[in-house]
Amino acid sequence: MAKAAQIFRCGECGWTTPKWVGRCGECQAWGTVEAAGAPRVDTVAAGPVAEAARPIAAVGLEVARSRPTGVGEFDRALGGGLVQGAVILLAGEPGVGKSTLLLDVSARWAHEAGRALYVTGEESAAQVRLRAERTGALADHLFLTAETDLSAVLGHVDAVQPSLIVLDSVQTVSNPAADGAAGGVTQVREVAAAMIRVAKERGIATILVGHVTKDGSIAGPRVLEHLVDVVLHFEGDRHSRLRLVRTVKNRYGPADEVGCFDLTDSGISSLADPTGLFLSRHATPVPGTCITVTLEGRRPLLGEIQALVATSALATPRRANSGLDSSRVAMVLAVLERRGNVRLSSSDVYTSTVGGAKLSEPAADLAMMLAVASAASGRPLPPALTALGEVGLAGEIRRVTGLQRRLAEAERMGFTTALVPADPGPVPAGIKIIEVADVGQALAAADGRPS
Questions:
Q1: Per-domain residue ranges for the chain?
Q2: Cβ atoms 425, 315 nearer than 8 A
Q3: Which of 29, 259, 373, 386 is 20 to 30 A from 334 via CA?
């Protein structure tokens, strides 16, 4: 008989080819094409079913009920808590605090809900024990093991019978029966599939820790994000205490929630109101500062933009920024000079945010423009003023989403005046609204002059 032809398949997108290539012809990923064996042409016959199909109204809801973990901001990002049988993928850069957070979640779960199994493949059990003692994450029903073999991990699951499993991380565990080294595309797919199968069959909430690549995406096959129920990104600057858990995918709740945490030497704690971290306090008004309200998921947060304009000694003036989108800063500076008649072509312009916040949405354009204009003129803005709006190339001020929620947060934090685009709709009664249609009106209103 003729030998069956060999095929190769991409681990990222499933593209097949009759010969091996280094780069996938469909998704253009490097090193993801592997041998997949001969193509199968067998037909699939009908077989026994695990459970008979029922009318949708007869399906019970108790299995999909979430249980709080005890960490408020983590529950907020999950949409209320952990669901029985749910598989969560938490990814983040090295040293951002993933293990510290999940150790705290496991300890609180062990105190309140049931047994928790923490599997570490990156550290020894003694190292994790030292961190747990330092952060106060010790619990009688929290079991700890250091394993990198998938069969050993499954054996611990059979012995402990936990209701929560934390696998730190999925890239360090390998299946001896699969090809490739730990962390490879095949190994990550096999380990994740085995943990997902155990979680679904036994109703165990499972959290998988994932590594990230240089560009910030999750390492491993893209299919991993499709298989799990929830995908969370753990973000934070090494020089800042603030940490954010951002929901990217959630089958049990909203996919745009954000949880805020404060990382200290004694552990990690939830921040129900993190606005104070993004504002600075001045005894007297200072030129070049303006407050805006940004939306992190559904949560409104106040952010402060600072600007400094200085005479340049270079042929090409410098443009430096921190925490802001460089392309948007360049666009706003061009609109301010052309439409607002503020001369910046011979000056160095420095822009920054306070507290390590990252403001990339268009709603911060108006506050950025007013901060630069204030720094150029040397006149401070009113201390209780906030600005919300997108700046267009024609000099118009455009509306932004969630304006009512932003204004309500500004009023709660004590701001009395807000510069907003025209026709803002219903607004809170405790804040004065100044509608501006273009750059000229915005600059005049900020200076207290008639437009």
A1: 7-37, 65-272, 277-447
A2: no
A3: 386
Degrees, nearest 5: CA angle 193-195-196: 65
Say how far apart CA 355 and CA 375 lie, in whole Å. Answer: 20
Cα 182–chain centre separation: 26
CA dist 283 → 173, 279, 356, 410, 418 (Å): 55, 13, 22, 20, 21
The answer to whether residues 195 and 224 touch, using CB atoms and an 8 Å cutoff, is: no
Largest CA distance in the chain: 91
Say whether 93 counts as a known binding-site residue: yes
* pLDDT tens-digit series, residues 292-349: 999 887 888 899 999 999 999 888 899 999 989 999 999 999 999 999 999 998 999 9
Q: What is the fold, at CATH topology level, of the domain defined by 277-447?
A: Ribosomal Protein S5; domain 2 (3.30.230)
Would you call the peptide bond into 124 cis, given omega within 30 degrees of 0 as the criterion?
A: no
- For the question of whether the overall pTM of this predicted structure is more than 0.85, the answer is no
Residue 96 among known ligand-binding residues: yes
Q: How far is CA 255 from the centre of its chain?
A: 10
Instruction: For residue 442, give both structure tokens.
Output: 């915005």
> DSSP 3-state assignment of 422?
coil
Residue with tokens 């109703």, as numbered in its chain: 203
Evaluate whether 317 touches 345 at the Cβ level (below 8 Å): yes
Residue 95 is assigned to a ligand binding site: yes
In whole angstroms, what is the distance from residue 406 CA to residue 238 CA? 28
- Note the CATH number of domain 65-272: 3.40.50.300
The SS3 call for residue 339 is helix
Residue 432 labelled as part of a binding site? no
Q: Does the structure show a pLDDT above 50 at 1? A: no
Write the pLDDT tens digit of every residue in 382-397.
Answer: 888 999 999 999 999 9
Least confident of 24-38, 86-100, 168-182: 24-38
